[in-house]
Amino acid sequence: MMRGLMSLAAAALAIFALPAAAQEQQFAELGTCGEISDCRIGYRTYGTLNEARDNAVLVPAWYGGSTEQMGFMATAPFLDPERYFIILVDPIGNGVSISPSNSPSQSMGEFPELTIGDMVESEYRLVTEHLGLESLHAVTGISMGGMQTFEWAARYLDFADRFVPIIGSPRLPAYDIVRWDTANAIRAWERACRCPEARAIEAGFGITTRPIGVANDAVARAEAFDFIETRAAQDDFDEGESWDLQRQGEAMIDLDISRHFGGDMALAARELGRQVDMMIVVSREDRIVSPEPAMDFARLAGFPVLVTDEGCGHGDFNCNPDVWTVAAGAFLADDD
User: Fold this and answer.
1) Contact assessment for residue 25 and residue 96, using Cβ atoms and an 8 Å cutoff
2) What is the pTM of this model?
């Protein structure tokens, strides 16, 4: 599943006009982050912080993603580095920031269970303690980055002027929870058996989350069984990556921004609708992050919502980036 999302990112790099050149990988040493020791957070920056220090935009990475893949987001008409100081962040658990795969003291299964709140708290500390900022112009992100954007809005609603979650969710519905928990169960089986049977199940399960048209275009009917057998025969299992993805998957399952409002999602929507400026972007045919919770939240809060329908499901963001980059970029640039 991570390979599929990373391939979407690679395609986006090719589609966006003149993506920004990759900037130097940087790190912030935060000591401890809750139960997580050696809390090291990776990030890259594009553009320049203005004299008023009010043009910073935070962009956390998606599930399994890293800032090395995200330069395309620092591109007009979405985020223009000539206008904004863009901070791309490697969330905890992505293999760059502190993660099960690289922790010197809490490696693999010893790494504490992770929440989206843990990611956002570390990002807040990166911004305030390490970069010395007192506010942000905006927070935005794709997929799990969109989930972090929702959590940012609920947790630090006065810290940023604008929020744009893209194909994210304020709380996963049952379909998504079962899907991510099943993916984690397959990973646990694969770690235990190191067997082609587990890789075959992972391959078949992964393709069922794609839109039907995309899945059929990717794998011809006559080659369906060969696809599974070929993936099963690939000896590319990485235990560290498996644990990284499991902890990030658990974090998404745990997400529920209504916790900040007594468990009442309607109240959360009303309060955020009253206090923050947010634009929500979803994909109509998304089978990885169901669009309904974000759409319901937008309706209750009175936020503008853009529903894409490009036939690529969770990959709509790169199949036709003009559909959302122009609208979301205009929303971010509107200072009224």
Assistant:
1) yes
2) 0.92
